[in-house]
Amino acid sequence: MRWSDFYLFTTREDPADAEVVSHRLMVRSGMLRKLAAGIYTYQPLGWRSMRKLMEIVRRELEVAGCVELSMPAVQPAELWQESGRWQKYGKELLRFEDRHQRGFCFGPTHEEVITDLVRRDVSSYRQLPLSLFQIQTKFRDEIRPRFGLMRGREFLMKDAYSFHADGDSLDEAYRALHDAYVRIFEACELDYIVVEADSGTIGGSSSHEFMVLADTGEDAVLFCKGSGYAANVEKATTRLAPPPPLPALEEPEAVDTPDAGSIGAVTKLLGVEPAQTVKTLVYESDKGFFAVAIRGDRTINEIKLKNVTDSLWIQLAEAPEVERLTGAALGYAGPCGLPDEVQLLVDESAAALQSFVCGANRTEVHLRGVQWQRDVGRSRTVDVLLAEPGDPCPRSGQALEGCRGIEVGHIFKLGTVYSSAMGCTFADENGQEQPMEMGCYGLGIGRTVAAAIEQNHDDDGISWPLPLAPFTVLLAALNPKDEAVVRTAEELYEQLRRAGHDVLYDDRDERPGVKFKDADLIGIPVRVVVGARSLEAGGVEFSLRSDREKRIVAVDELLAEVGAVVGGSSRV
RNA sequence: CGGGGCGUAGCUCAGCCUGGUAGAGCGCACGGUUCGGGACCGUGAGGCCGGAGGUUCAAAUCCUCUCGCCCCGACCA
Questions:
Q1: Which nucleotide C1' is nearest A519 CA?
Q2: Which residue minimizes Cα–C1' distance to B71?
Q3: Contact call for residues A190 and A362 (beta carbons, < 8 A)
Q4: In the structure, how far is the CA atom of residue A105 from the C1' atom of nucleotide B66, in angstroms?
Q5: Which of the two ends of chain A, N or C, has the fewest CB atoms closer than 10 A to its terminal CB?
Q6: Nearest-CA residue to the C1' of B12?
Q7: Residue A130: what are its φ and ψ, rounded to 5°?
Q8: Can you tell me the distance from the alpha carbon of A227 to that of A41, in angstroms, rounded to the nearest whole number?
Q9: Is residue A232 classed as helix, strand or coil in its secondary structure?
Q10: Contacts of A202 (CB under 8 A, 6+ apart)
Q11: Phi, psi (degrees; rounded to nearest 5) at A58
C-alpha cells in the first residue's frame, strides 16, 4: 500500500480526551476516531490490526471445532423477556421501539438469539454437541465508558456458544475453547494469565477470565506462583490465619466507647487488635436489609455479597436507615439483637473468632467477650471477604501476589440457565426431553488490540507485536525527488509485495524527520529506509521497531532479510 | 446516579477572575529557502467563543437553564 493512496493521518498532539496510552496512541496514529462517548470509527490502519486479530481468532476457533455464523445486532424484546433478562439486565441494555411500538434492544450479547436458533434446529442428542461463534458489534450502554477501546459502548466482540447433551461434553468444549484462547493470546504474543472469575449477570457456574497484564488494567488479580492459583479479586478466596484469641467471658460485657465509631478508635480504646473485633455493616438491597459481620481488619467484597444474597442490586444503607434498624448511631452496629427485618450474614473471617469485640447496637457502647453460639441469634455464614495481596493462597498457603489486568476473554459454563428458561431441549437416548447444557465464550477484539498497545509501546509510539501489526514492513523513500532513491524504493516495494509482505510504502513528499516520527508512532515492526545516504553506503537501511538498531543491507539481499524476521506472507 | 473538571479556528490551548466586540502554536493554502529525526521566512484562508434565556449602553467574559465531553466513585463480558 502506498501511503499517498492510503487513508492515514497522524497527529502531533495528544488528543485532549485520551487518558491511557493505548487510546492516546491509537488516536494519534490515525487508527481510531471518537464519534460519541464510547463509540468509535476504526480508521483503515486500526481496522487492519483488528482484521489481523480476527483472522487469528477464526483460525483457532475453527481448530477448536467452532462454526462461524452471524446474528442480528437488533433483537426483539420478547426473547429477552423469555430469558428473564429484559428485567434483570438494567440500563446497560439499550432498548428502543420500532415504528409499531414493538420493543427491541441492541444486543449486548447473544445468548437469547443463539438459544432461540438452536432450539428451532436441534432436537436430538445425535445432533449435539455444537459450537457456534460470530464476530460482531455489540452495544452496552455502560455507565461510564472510558479508556478508548478498553471500555467502549459499541465494540467488536467474538462470542461463541456451545450446546451439549451432558456436563461432560460441556467440560470438553470448555477445555477446547480455553485451549483455543491460550493459542490465540500466545499467537498475539501477549503477556496474560488465566484467572477464576465471577460470572456476573450472564449467570452460570464455572468461569475463567483471560487477563492481559497491564498496570492500567481495570481488574485486580491475585495469584500464587507456587500453586498456580489465580483469581479476579471479585472472586478470590483466601484462608486467613486466626488472630490471637481474646479471653472468654461468662457473658458479654458492655463497655462505654465514646467517640469510637470506627474500628481504629475502638481498638485503641480497648487495647485489642482490629482482627479481634467484628464490624457490622448494614446493606440495603432488592432482597431487603442485610447486616454483614466481618472481621474488623477486613473489607467486604460487594460482588460476593451480591451473589450470596442473590440480589439484583445491593448497597450500603443510608445513615438514617442504619440508625433506625440498629437503634444506634452509625458506627455502633453489631450482630446481637438486630430486628427481624434484617438478615444477618457472618463472614467466615468473623465466624472463626471465638470471643470478640463488636458494636452493641447502642450509641457509644461496644460489647466484649461476645461468642456466636451463645450471644448471637440466627445467622448465615458466608464468604464475602475481599482477598488482598499478602493473604494466604487458598491452596498453598503462600502469600498471594497482586497485579492488574485487562479482561480480554471470558469463558463461562452456563449450564441450563438459558436452555431451561427458553425451552432449548433435545431428546436423549431414552427419548426423554432434556434442556441442553450450554457454554459461552467471549473475546473482546478491540480490547485485545488496545491491550497489545498497552503492552507494546514506548515514548515515541506503538511497537506492534508482529501478528497484530497493521502492516509488517514500512518502506520509506526519504527524498522523493532523488531519482535513484525513488527507483530503488519503487523496485523494493514491488519485490516486497510480490513476496506477499504487508508493506506500507511511505512515498509522501515529506521531510525525513516527519517520516521517521510517523514511522515510530505507527510502530510497524520492520522498517526499511531508502535514502541518498544509505545508497551511498551500499544499500538500504534496515531496522526493527523493537530495538531500532540500524544496519545497511544490500538491495538484493533485502527480501531475504525481511523474510528472516517476518517469515513468509502475512497479508490480511 | 453522586463528586470534580472542561466546551473558544481542523488539532492543542490562552483570553474569562477585573465586561469594551477574537488570540497563539501546530495543521491547511500560496511563494521562497531547505531536505536523514515532527525545518525556516513571508503571505493568506479559517471562529454563531457548545446551545437557549437573562443582566448590561456593551457579554467569550457575569447570572440561570440546557446539551456534550473528560476524570474519580458505584456498576459491568
A1: B37
A2: A19
A3: no
A4: 28
A5: C
A6: A13
A7: -135, 140
A8: 43
A9: strand
A10: A109, A111, A412, A414, A440
A11: -60, -45
CA A161, CA A133: separation in Å to the nearest integer? 6
> Does the pLDDT value for residue A383 go beyond 80?
yes
* Chain B footprint bases within 7 A of protein beta carbons: 1, 11-13, 25-27, 34-39, 68-77
Distance, angstroms, CA A529 to C1' B43?
Answer: 35
What's the one-letter identity of residue A430? N
- How much is the pLDDT for A194? 95
Distance, angstroms, CA A463 to C1' B1? 40
Structural domains present in chain A: 21-189+418-453 (3.30.930.10), 253-382 (3.90.960.10), 471-566 (3.40.50.800)
A440 within 8 A of A159, measured Cβ to Cβ: yes
Please identify which residue in the block is written with the cell numbers 449435539: A128
What pLDDT is stored for residue A199 in this prediction?
66
| Nucleotide in closest CA–C1' contact with A478 | B36
Closest CA to A255 of A335, A327, A332, A324: A332
Sign of dihedral through CA atoms A490, A491, A492, A493?
positive
pLDDT value at position A492?
97
What CA–CA distance (Å, rounded) separates A541 from A485? 12
pLDDT given at position A87:
84
pLDDT tens, A2-47?
Answer: 999 999 999 999 999 888 999 999 999 999 999 989 999 999 999 9
The alpha helices in A41-144, defined as continuous H runs, are 44-63, 77-83, 85-88, 111-121
Strand nucleotide closest to residue A442 (CA to C1'): B77
Query: In whole angstroms, how large is the CA radius of gyration of chain A?
Result: 29
